[in-house]
């Protein structure tokens, strides 16, 4: 072991588990690509104010969790804690919203950073795949995104997750509710920090995880009862569309989520096998965010799915993904001449698009065959001096154990035939 360890709250993705991570990312990406979302990649850090303003000054993300730094040139930057503000910033900067093609649909995949209390399922460096539909107010878009996330989890084989759905209202009805909630909260027995939060962002108090707080919130006014007609109608359409798609969800009138920018539709995917870090993904509508970061009015909706927790959820359910072996053919060379010839064959196979690997390191037959087994390859190419003298190599089926001699210039065809 070296003297260095991965920093607290981080971990390394290493084989074979790393293959599961890639498969999770791929599966989610497949769904959004298939629905017309284009790939966007933004820097790992941004002007700190993009997040302070965009994510909300009073959120945990901004007050406690952000990694900030001052550059040698004096710029104040933050490692990105989430994707939405960056993606919207990028879309505005490139004027994607001015090309008459709203909504602009984008997806992303990458690393995010939050200075959190590290524990299982909660890390300081984690991965998300996200999707954003920018510049349209259409309940079918909210529905599309919820259906796509559901489809991604389903395609992975997850079953024990639930979809929680709520509406947070808009700038018409939320202020009225906010006031009602505030006067309710002021009458409760809450600690000073929570009371302060009740003044700045009362909705977030509903999200408090502590049982003694939750007990006091049983009779809290619900936004559901304050929604204006437009928000009610919008929400009803979202519910109808996802119901018609056969997606099962639960209405959760207390779901508020951690970011300040959400309006109307909010949702969370929770997995019941993950203990307290149960949210595997979440999202919602953010009609006011563009204006908050200096852009025009661009009603938008999106989600971010946590790759780390999705992998944990797969493990909790005991789902083994059907991952094809990385290697199809493994070449075992005995002796210098065989090494030269078989190394050439491996290159030839790879150029033909067949996944092939080689017994590096000059091992003997036993060690090399062990490597061949470990690689998961369907076929082994084995050759020693005697084979080469006859102008052949041995092609072994690793499943059946069957072996036959193949002429050197017939290897590619024979391999193709056996792999089907
Ligand atoms: P939580 O309530 O668990 O803190 P969040 O509301 O902060 O989650 P979002 O900002 O909505 O999470 O991010 C979307 C997804 O990213 C989450 O559902 C989760 O799967 C994942 N995620 C968020 N923070 C972390 C973290 N620190 N470590 C691992 N995954 C995370
Ligand atoms: Mg959080």
Describe the structure.
The chain is α+β, with helices and mostly antiparallel strands. It is 39% helix and 21% strand. The chain has helices at residues 17-33, 48-55, 60-65, 84-93, 139-156, 174-186, 192-200, 202-205, 211-216, 229-244, 289-292, 307-317, 336-351, 365-375, 385-389, 411-419, and strands at 38-39, 45-47, 68-70, 76-79, 104-113, 125-134, 161-167, 250-251, 263-271, 279-285, 300-306, 329-333, 356-358, 379-383, 392-397, 403-407. An 8-stranded mixed sheet has the order 1-5-6-11-10-9-7-8, sandwiched between helices. The two termini are 43 Å apart.
Alpha-carbon Rg, integer? 27 Å
The named CATH superfamily of the largest domain: Bira Bifunctional Protein, Domain 2
Unreliable parts: none
CATH architecture descriptor name of the largest domain? 2-Layer Sandwich
Briefly summarize what is shown.
With 420 residues, the chain is an alpha+beta fold. It contains 16 helices and 16 strands.
Give the topology, please.
Elements: H1 17-33, E1 38-39, E2 45-47, H2 48-55, H3 60-65, E3 68-70, E4 76-79, H4 84-93, E5 104-113, E6 125-134, H5 139-156, E7 161-167, H6 174-186, H7 192-200, H8 202-205, H9 211-216, H10 229-244, E8 250-251, E9 263-271, E10 279-285, H11 289-292, E11 300-306, H12 307-317, E12 329-333, H13 336-351, E13 356-358, H14 365-375, E14 379-383, H15 385-389, E15 392-397, E16 403-407, H16 411-419
Parallel strand pairs: 1-5, 7-8, 12-13, 12-14
Antiparallel strand pairs: 2-4, 3-4, 5-6, 6-11, 7-9, 9-10, 10-11, 14-15, 15-16
Helix pairs in contact: 1-5, 1-12, 5-10
